[in-house]
Amino acid sequence: MSNPAVQSALGAARFRLQFPQSLATYDDYATAQKTVDFLSDEGFPVENCMIVGTDLKQMERITGRLTTGRVALSGAISGLWLGLFVGILFSFFGTANAVAEIVSTMLLGLVFGLVWSLVGFAMSRGQRDFASVTQVIATKYEVLVEHKVAAQAREVLAKLPGALPNPFA
User: 69 exposed, middle or buried (CB, 10 Å; 0-12, 13-18, 19+)?
Assistant: First the structure.
């Protein structure tokens, strides 16, 4: 048996450096990635590097208004897909007409999805009648290196035009 606490500790250890030092800070991930790629191209031991996104913020993009019709259509389509999946599974083990099983489970799924989505929408009482997508993004990306190779990393990075080898410059 495996111990979840040990697995978690081992997984977290992958994302640690013993004594990290900041090599450079960038406004976008692509530039930070370019820095590490350049270090790799120059033969630097990049296993001593880490890119860390900092200054996190959550953004929410509103994608549209939720109406009863949109909610019903979305629920019906979701239920239809679920019914198709269940119907295919049933058809593997059933002895009856497979097509009839699939169609009947699709219809049951459609009705279930439609009713379930409308009930959920009605229970929200208009508190959140819009659809959106959310994402957590970083506003800064910092390249960290292990302290024992920080000077070497700065020397290598100084060869890259436009690089910021000193985060305090």
Answer: exposed
20 beta partners: 146
**H helix runs in 14-63, sequence order:** 29-41
Integer Cα distance of 80 and 108 in angstroms: 8
Q: pLDDT digit string (tens) for 25-83?
A: 999 999 899 999 999 999 999 899 999 998 899 999 999 888 899 999 999 999 999 99
Segments of the chain assigned E as strands: 20-26, 49-65, 130-146
Contacts of 64 (CB under 8 A, 6+ apart): 70, 130, 131
Give which of 30, 32, 31 is closest to 52, Cα–Cα.
32
User: How many other CB atoms are found less than 10 A from the CB of residue 105?
Assistant: 21
